């Protein structure tokens, strides 16, 4: 029995709420159970210096956790003067994931930054961030088309992410903190809307895992992402 009482192949309650930020070109509040991540998409003219003259835009992500997103207060990274390695790794993952489904040439001389701020954390913050970030990005691109800034959306497909793991010797979908902190195997799957893989992070936290266990986790991830893709399309309109 999972601590939450969910079936092994059951997601937490998922909610993707759009238009939650008055000023951002696109926004989404992604809720995976008790994990809540606010994703806002901001469009700016221009690209990083190393991209100038190449005739394409840029999509990037930033990630952070509010001080009281967890059981105890964490110091703001800005107050410490530097980002943690974990924060840098996650925001790079968000950027890579989104760029895999964007035609940067169609975006033109523009940068879209997706800020993913964790309001409340209960496991799976990076997967919730990626799933919500795609919705925010989609809404921002739709806005650019509506305003006739772009002739067509540069988005070429969907991307969603979900965690899976082996908890008490059973493969399970969408780990919350109680499972994530005690899982034998922990994995994050980032998948494209057509079922192809974008990135997989899998770690034997307490022991090695077998081919069969990995295949079971992959099956769960595809099942979970299928539901997330449906939720994204409904939210993005």
UniProtKB/TrEMBL annotation:
InterPro entries: ExoRNase_PH_dom1, ExoRNase_PH_dom2, ExoRNase_PH_dom2_sf, PNPase/RNase_PH_dom_sf, Ribosomal_Su5_D2-typ_SF, RNase_PH, RNase_PH_bac-type, RNase_PH_CS. PROSITE patterns: RIBONUCLEASE_PH. Phosphate binds at residues 86, 124-126. Keywords: Nucleotidyltransferase, RNA-binding, rRNA processing, Transferase, tRNA processing, tRNA-binding. GO terms for molecular function: 3'-5'-RNA exonuclease activity; tRNA binding; tRNA nucleotidyltransferase activity. Belongs to the RNase PH family. This is Ribonuclease PH. It comes from Terricaulis silvestris.
């Amino acid at each position: 029995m999972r601590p939450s009482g969910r079936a092994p192949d059951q997601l937490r309650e998922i909610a993707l709420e759009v238009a939650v930020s008055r000023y951002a070109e696109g926004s989404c509040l992604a809720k995976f159970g008790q994990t809540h991540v606010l994703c806002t998409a901001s469009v700016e003219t221009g690209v990083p210096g190393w991209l100038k003259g190449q005739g394409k835009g840029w999509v990037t992500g930033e990630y952070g956790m509010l001080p009281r997103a967890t059981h105890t207060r964490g110091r703001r990274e800005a107050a410490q003067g530097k980002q943690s390695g974990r924060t840098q790794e996650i925001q790079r993952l968000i950027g890579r994931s989104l760029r895999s489904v964007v035609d940067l040439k169609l975006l033109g001389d523009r940068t879209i930054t997706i800020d993913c701020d964790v309001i409340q954390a209960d496991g799976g913050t990076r997967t919730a961030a990626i799933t919500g970030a795609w919705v925010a990005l989609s809404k921002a691109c739709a806005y650019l088309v509506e305003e006739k800034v772009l002739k067509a959306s540069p988005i070429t497909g969907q991307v969603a992410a979900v965690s899976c793991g082996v908890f008490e010797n059973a493969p399970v979908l969408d780990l919350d903190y109680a499972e994530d902190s005690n899982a034998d195997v922990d994995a994050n799957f980032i998948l494209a809307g057509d079922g192809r893989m974008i990135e997989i992070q899998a770690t034997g936290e307490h022991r090695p895992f077998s081919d069969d266990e990995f295949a079971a986790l992959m099956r769960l991830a595809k099942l979970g992402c299928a539901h997330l893709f449906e939720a994204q399309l409904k939210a993005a309109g």
